[in-house]
Amino acid sequence: MTWSYLRRDFLPPLAICTFCRRPLHSEKGIVITDEVGTEAFAGPSCAKKHLGQPEERLLDVSRLALLVVADEPAQHNESAPTPASPAPEIGAGSSPTSSPQRPPLPPIDEVVQYVRLRCEAMNGFKFAVSKVLKLAHDEYKQSGEIEDGLRKQIGGAMRNAAANKSVLSPINVKRCIGLNHWLVEAVQHTNKDRREFLEQMQTHLHRFWMLTPKQMAAINRWGEHIRKRIDDFPLLDEEAFSGVTLPEFMQRNPSSRR
């Protein structure tokens, strides 16, 4: 059976991970689907282990959260996963056998995706929206297209950022959005008088578009407290931002020295 990502959605009571059979206690979780449209749920670590990295097509930015989930050692039986029981009903639907097989998805427009992520999903991040990106985003919203000159300019910048392992690279942008998702969730499950550390980490992420391995490890230690209430809050990849570089214009503020 082949599973693929579908969306993140609110979980019903007693939802369980279809792979490890553990209960899922988060308010929202990962919904997956098989070839015939059967839907089931998966925890973040199991989803990454069994399905790999998600492709982002619908700007469901919470799915990017899986990009910073650690490949943690299995804590359960390493034999083949228990076959999924009939998936919980999510809304009205017919029998899975009556669902037609899904056609292949169209290719992702990487430039449009990058523009939308920078302009729509990085609220609070310093330097997120440049003049060129805003112009391209405004054009996309108006016509559904980005003209060739802007497309080439942005595409070239994306390639250079990737080659230089810059924090501006498409993959690092996605990791920033993914980590921000978990920080927001952690803040939501932490008492107001104990949020200072998490808010400091979020402020640093918004300013520098990266966290150090030590900072990521500290968040994981903090996560131990959160897992006492939300046991499917994941371990994060402490090396998620290792090797990324800060472009010169982001270093001009003396406070950027670390």
Structural class: mainly alpha
Gap between N and C termini, in Å? Answer: 48 Å
Total discrete domains: 3
Helix segment tally? 7
With strands numbered from the N-terminus, the spatial order across the biggest sheet is 1-2-3
Secondary-structure element order, as H and E?
Answer: EEEHHHHHHH
Keywords: Plasmid
Task: Please describe what this structure looks like.
The chain is mainly alpha-helical and 258 residues long. It has 3 domains: 4-98, no CATH class; 110-163, no CATH class; 170-256, no CATH class. 37% of the residues lie in helices and 7% in strands. The chain has 7 helices and 3 strands. It has a 3-stranded antiparallel sheet with strand order 1-2-3. Helix 2 crosses helix 3 (131-143), helix 2 (110-120) crosses helix 4 (148-163) and helix 5 (170-188) runs antiparallel to helix 6 (196-208). The chain is globular, with a radius of gyration of 20 Å. The model is unreliable at 74-99 (pLDDT under 50). Residues 73-107 are annotated as: Disordered. Keywords: Plasmid.
What is shown here, in short?
The protein is mainly alpha-helical and 258 residues long. The chain is 37% helix and 7% strand.
Which SSEs are present, and which pair or pack?
Layout: E1 4-10, E2 28-33, E3 39-42, H1 44-51, H2 110-120, H3 131-143, H4 148-163, H5 170-188, H6 196-208, H7 213-227
Antiparallel strand pairs: 1-2, 2-3
Helix pairs in contact: 2-3, 2-4, 5-6
